[in-house]
Write a structure and sequence with these properties.
The complex is a heterodimer of chains A (209) and B (658). With 209 residues, chain A is an all-alpha fold. Chain A has a single domain, classed as Cytochrome c oxidase, subunit III, four-helix bundle (Four Helix Bundle (Hemerythrin (Met), subunit A), Up-down Bundle). In chain A, 81% of the residues lie in helices and 0% in strands. Chain A contains seven helices and no strands. Chain A is elongated. Chain B is mainly α and 658 residues long. Chain B folds into two domains: 35 residues; 554 residues, Cytochrome C Oxidase, Chain A (Up-down Bundle), CATH 1.20.210.10. Chain B is 68% helix and 1% strand. Chain B has 20 helices and two strands. A two-stranded antiparallel sheet of chain B has the order 1-2. In chain B, helix 10 runs antiparallel to helix 11. The termini of chain B are far apart. The relative contact order of chain B is 0.10. Classes of the chains: A mainly alpha (209), B mainly alpha (658). Chains A and B meet through helix 1, helix 2 and helix 6 of A and helix 7, helix 8, helix 9 and helix 19 of B.
């Protein structure tokens, strides 16, 4: 028999980034990728639902009536910049620079908070001032649930990253904390990708068509 | 004061289901059973044992056993539902159940059998067998595994609570809109369905991810994908289906919950909602779900048939590729559940053809099992009997499925008892025969003793013959025009004799199940011990370790060079070719933890709060769930090492010290 696969794994691991250096870290990162695949189906289903119901406005406000490009652009820019700073945090992680990692993660969640604030404000404006709450029409049900699910994901991500920051502060960069910071980064970028689809399928399509 | 008492009275009358003697009987038996369990645990001072050995366990073997116990209890309840329906339908114009009660019973029967019996039973068997088959010491994420189990368990409890508190759902297991929406179906019953199934569904998704990673990353050295046992292959493919089908169901359930609780309009008729969207979303999960509960039993039958024909499985690679083909096709057939909803002809034609295509890989598998039997030394054990009975009985279900797949003909069969007979032929002769087969096959591995063969064979014959007595005539009843979900029927349609025969068959299946339960209790006291760990002369690695396996499964991780790894090792041992003995090394194992069961309990509180729209209860429950997640994130000391001395002691106790 040739060399066992297990020892091959072990040999490769020492050369890998810190988060992959333990078998446990490796397993969890693979598991997280698969979780993101499941999330993709979840958001895919919500997009499908929204697109089916988009024209079902039942005499209520339409996408064109509601959406304004200003706040939407602000949300988009804030979230995209947060994805960039999140990427910078991963670079600092690879450099084993604890201060840089923590700093960029804090910037990331602050931008995340601004995004959530803008989104809550947008929801509040529609629901209260424009007479377009979730119960007004199927279109609005689809809109609020698709964006709300994304917003909840961002909010949970913020809580998660705060927890990781506390652990980084206490324990420094270890294989375990490195894995957690890396996975939170994957999650954050994933939410950014979802937002790009929301921007296109919901806002651009809604404003133009 | 009196007004307060009155308001309490009226609340209790609304909160508890009242007015039906059968429900009062159920209340009493639930109360008595609970008091009995508490009394026995207290009397024998077993609370600590229960908490330390079971509730906080992250051991895949114990989690598997808990899944199976829960699934057997749910099977009992789902079976009682079935017998109630059959009693009601035995003769025309009976009033054993009224229409509303009948609707609730068929809804809970279907939901329980699929979500709370078939899936957890399969999850239980895969928990027990897969890590052992691939030579691993646990699953990839033991904590998540425990959490999956507890989410399933509280989901099942929440769903079953509807029976005595608030009222059961009554919109069918497929819960079609608009009937299931709040306008047509006020009250809490449907909320129970949505929340109970949702909570256990999150657990199922986590199990899918867990086993996918376990099988992909944790196989013993040398076990390439195409050297894996067939059951492990079936679980790998099933896990992929779970990961890609379940999120759609999560969304569908959430959308209907939002419709009902927050007045949204996804599936309503008013304000632009689309009831057909529900049918699409539900079956986009629902059809793959059929294969989630079928592919694993295909794996079980492959193992059992190869073991008891004493031959390697015929056409291994074809078996794998046919399962892959089935898994892909399972995602493009969902519309055949509603051919009659008025799709255009090309749409129906597409789904008609894709459905018929599934018969090809399935047929290939049937022939592979037959060729495995060909020229084998067949040993008729209880698990083998279940496997052999599966082949013809399931094929009948499959062939009638192809008949239903023809869209124009389906206009005739749709929602008739022909359809009911078809899916019971596949789900009973496939899934139920399969889980019983796996239960008998892996029982010695789970508990270290055998189930009695004579009693096992009796229960098999009674159950299998009764199954045919119940469901063969049902096809003809369907062709005679009786439709599903009717709670009674007039005399003079010629349906009565067939209904009488079917009821006799249904009770016969009940007798078979009770005999199996008796066999379990009898064998627990008198069953033959399995001292070798290999009672069946097995071919795969789970039989190479002790029965029951030690906490760490394998003192040495096995090395694999061929398919049927253990059979090959046994051949080598016979020819005197043994491996040199290696020294033991300390083994790294995860710690037990109470967080999964506590977190699932908070989920129950949150779910129950949502059912009654009591947000003062739901919000703290949800906060509790998040608090548990945070607490878990801060636990760093989550594993321990088993010392060499302890390994030696354990191995010596089973006569395996090398």
């Amino acid at each position: 028999m040739t060399e066992s696969t297990l020892s091959l794994h072990e040999k490769d691991r020492s050369k890998m980034p810190l988060e992959y250096t333990t078998e446990e870290g490796d397993l969890r990162i693979v598991g997280f990728w698969i979780f993101l695949a499941a999330e993709l189906v979840l958001f895919g289903t919500l997009f499908g639902t929204y697109l089916v119901l988009q024209s079902h406005t039942a005499g209520g406000p339409t996408a064109k009536d509601l959406f304004e490009i200003g706040p939407v652009m602000a949300e988009t820019i804030v979230l995209l910049v947060s994805s960039f700073t999140c990427g910078l945090s991963t670079i600092e992680l690879r450099r084993h620079n604890k201060k840089g990692l923590i700093g960029w993660l804090i910037v990331t969640i602050l931008l995340g908070l601004v995004f959530v604030g803008l989104e809550v404000n947008e929801f509040y404006t529609y629901a209260v001032h424009e007479g377009a709450p979730i119960s007004r029409s199927a279109f609005l049900s689809g809109f609020f649930v698709l964006l709300g699910t994304h917003g909840c994901h961002v909010s949970l991500g913020i809580i998660w990253i705060i927890g990781i920051l506390l652990q980084l502060g206490k324990r420094g960069i270890t294989p375990v904390t490195a894995r957690k910071a890396f996975m939170a980064g994957l999650y954050w970028h994933f939410l950014d990708v979802v937002w790009i689809f929301i921007f296109t399928a919901v806002y651009l399509t809604g404003l133009v068509i | 004061m009196t007004t307060m008492i009155d308001s309490i009275k009226s609340f209790m009358g609304w909160f508890f289901v009242t007015g039906d003697p059968m429900i009062y009987g159920a209340d009493a038996s639930i109360a008595l059973a609970s008091i009995g369990i508490v009394a026995v645990l207290t009397y024998f001072k077993k609370w600590k044992w229960l908490w330390q050995e079971w509730l906080t366990s992250v051991d895949h073997k114990k989690i598997g056993i808990m899944y199976i116990i829960a699934a057997l209890l749910m099977l009992f309840r789902g079976g009682v539902d079935a017998l109630m329906m059959r009693t009601q339908l035995t003769l025309p114009n009976l009033h054993f159940l009224d229409a509303e009660h009948y609707n609730q019973v068929f809804t809970t029967h279907g939901t329980i059998m699929i979500i709370f019996v078939a899936m957890p039973f399969i999850f239980g068997l895969m928990n027990i067998a897969v890590p052992l088959q691939i030579g691993a010491r646990d699953v990839a994420f033991p904590f998540l595994n425990a959490l999956s189990f507890w989410l399933f368990f509280v989901g099942a409890m929440l769903f079953n609570l509807s029976f005595v508190i608030g009222g059961s759902p009554d919109a069918g297991w497929s819960s079609y809109a608009p009937y299931a929406d709040v306008e047509m179906n006020p009250g809490v019953g449907q909320n129970y369905y949505l929340l109970g199934v949702q909570i256990s569904g999150i657990g199922s998704l986590a199990t899918g991810i867990n086993f996918l990673v376990t099988i992909l990353k944790m196989r013993a050295p040398g076990m390439t994908l195409f050297k894996m046992p067939m059951f492990t292959w079936s679980i790998l493919i099933t896990s992929v289906i779970v990961v890609f089908a379940f999120p759609a169901f999560t969304v569908a359930l959430a959308l209907m919950t939002i419709d009902r609780l927050f007045g949204a309009h996804f599936f309503t008729i008013a304000a632009g909602g689309s009831p057909m969207l529900w049918a699409n979303l539900f079956w986009f999960w629902g059809h793959p779900e059929v294969y989630i509960v079928l592919l694993p039993v295909f794996g079980i039958f492959s193992e059992v048939i190869a073991t008891f024909a004493h031959k390697t499985l015929f056409g291994y690679a074809v078996m794998v590729w046919s399962m892959v083909a089935i898994s892909l096709l399972s995602f493009i057939t969902w519309l055949h559940h509603f051919f009659t909803m008025g799709n255009t002809a090309p749409v129906n034609a597409f789904f008609s053809i894709s459905t018929m295509l599934i018969a090809i890989p399935t047929g290939v598998k049937i022939f592979n099992w037959l060729f495995t039997l060909n020229k084998g030394r067949i040993q008729f054990t209880t698990p083998m009997l279940w496997a052999l009975a599966f082949i013809p009985n399931f094929t009948i279900g499959g062939v009638t499925g192809v008949m239903l797949a023809m869209a124009p003909a389906d206009y005739q069969y749709h929602n008739s008892y022909f359809l009911v007979a078809h899916f019971h032929s596949t789900l009973i002769a496939g899934t139920v025969f399969g889980i019983f087969c796996g239960l008998h096959y892996w029982w010695p591995k789970m508990f270290g003793y055998m189930l009695d063969e004579t009693k096992g064979k009796w229960s098999f014959w009674i159950f299998m013959i009764s199954f045919n007595v119940c469901f063969m005539p049902m096809y003809f009843l369907g062709l005679m025009g009786m439709t599903r979900r009717m709670y009674t029927y007039p005399a003079g349609l010629g349906w009565t004799p067939i209904n009488v025969v079917m009821t006799i068959g249904a009770f016969g299946m009940g007798v078979g199940f009770v005999l199996m339960a008796y066999n379990i209790i009898w064998s627990a006291m008198h069953g033959k011990k399995d001292a070798t760990g290999d009672p069946w002369n097995g071919r795969t690695l789970e039989w190479s370790t002790a029965s029951p396996a030690a906490e760490y499964n394998f003192a040495h991780i096995p090395e694999v060079s061929e398919r049927d790894a253990f059979a090959v090792t046994k051949e080598k041992r016979k020819s005197g070719n043994t491996k040199p003995v290696k020294p033991y090394a300390p083994i790294h194992m995860p710690n037990n933890t109470g967080i999964p069961v506590i977190m699932a309990s908070f989920m129950f509180v949150a779910g129950f709060g949502c059912v009654f729209e009591w947000y003062w209860m739901a919000i703290p429950g949800a906060i509790g769930v998040i608090a548990c997640m945070i607490a878990r994130s801060f636990v760093y000391n989550d594993h321990h090492y088993i010392s060499v001395e302890e390994i030696k002691r354990t191995e010596a106790a089973t006569g395996r010290l090398s």
